[in-house]
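Before any further analysis, we paired sequence with structure tokens, yielding the entry below:
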Amino acid sequence: MRSFIMSKISRQLTLALLLSLALVSGLYIALQPILSGAICRYYETNPSITQEKTKKILSSLQNYVQVNNVSPSDTEKLSQWVKKYPLTILHVYRHEAMLYDSTLFTSSGLHTHTTARSLFAHESVYYIVFSDGTAFVSITIFPEYGMIQMMNIGLLLICGLIFLGIMLLCIRKELLHFTRLEQDVLSIAGGSLHTSIRVQGQDELASLSECIEEMRRSLVAKLRQEEARQQESYEWVTALSHDFRTPLTMLTGYLEIIRRQSQAPTQQAYADKACRKATQLKEMSDLLFACFSPNALQNDARICLPTAYLEELLGEWISLLTKEGYTVRLHDMAPSCVLAHQDALRRVMDNVFSNLSKYADPLKPIDISAYTENNRYTLTAQSTSHARVNVQSAGLGLNICKNLMANMRGNFITDQRGDQFFYCIEWEIADPLAETASA
């Protein structure tokens, strides 16, 4: 309760409520007597209206008396008729004595009027034939009171609508602030971090807007710092990769010369191994560069690679694995055409099958299969790890493969359950004719 009282919004709404209530109350108090006086003056200046209504009521009374066989002493029947005309006063006289007065709740008070007296000057007397003879009646109507009552109801409705209108305007102001704040927050949530939060007023909504705006600025600053850090990392990795490539290229050339000029079988074997290791280091440098650079493959557009190209890559590695003593079971290759970067695809395949050659158990078969589903081409490789090898030691290469596949809008999934591990690679499928036409 205290927090509600101390709230700026609650104070503003309470003040608006009191002011609007005071305004409409003053408006009603000021207009009611003016309008009531105008209605009364209108009927005073137009007596024919009252006379016409009096004649209609008198005719109604005469019909009621004749139909129901009413006498002046039948106060209950006369009271029932008077109830139909609540703004009518009825007096019944005979021999200058009052026999009925509609202003009395009971007829016991008539003893004060039974004495003979003269009629009041303002009373209009009309003769009515009752069941026991003729009597004259005095009918007084107040048509202006009914009009005043209707005027009061209408004035109250108008004041109520004005009160509601003022309150709705005050609430609408806060709701508009809420709506603008919601739109700005949704815009930021949609990724438009440069959308500023509009701050209006000095209430709790304004404080909330300022807090969200500070959060937005802080988030933008952190994102800029992260972008700067990523750019710095990219530049560092680019320089490092370049520094690696130059000596590795020279080293590969020197080793190639030694391998060709060497005559001893032992030296030639070591030269071959050294050349392969140098080539492997260069490939790892390229993979590291591609991993830290999301834009590294932008110049290498995705092209439609047929299944034959995948089978060629698989054939090379299957032949190598077979020579190393592994048993490879190749299941049906679904004919398809995938969208991929050719160099990146070779890097991913080389990384996967090099891991198989390192960690798979030569005594257990390696199952390779491919299938097409939901416009995706999926290649899986499953095997059993060697008991003395920890498959998770190759985490960096797997992360590089994930980034390369993400750049190609594909997926790279790995899993290990006990000694069983498998790789899953997914690409998008495209129509070769459409790709050729678009190229």
About this structure: The chain has eleven helices and eleven strands. The longest strand covers residues 420-429.
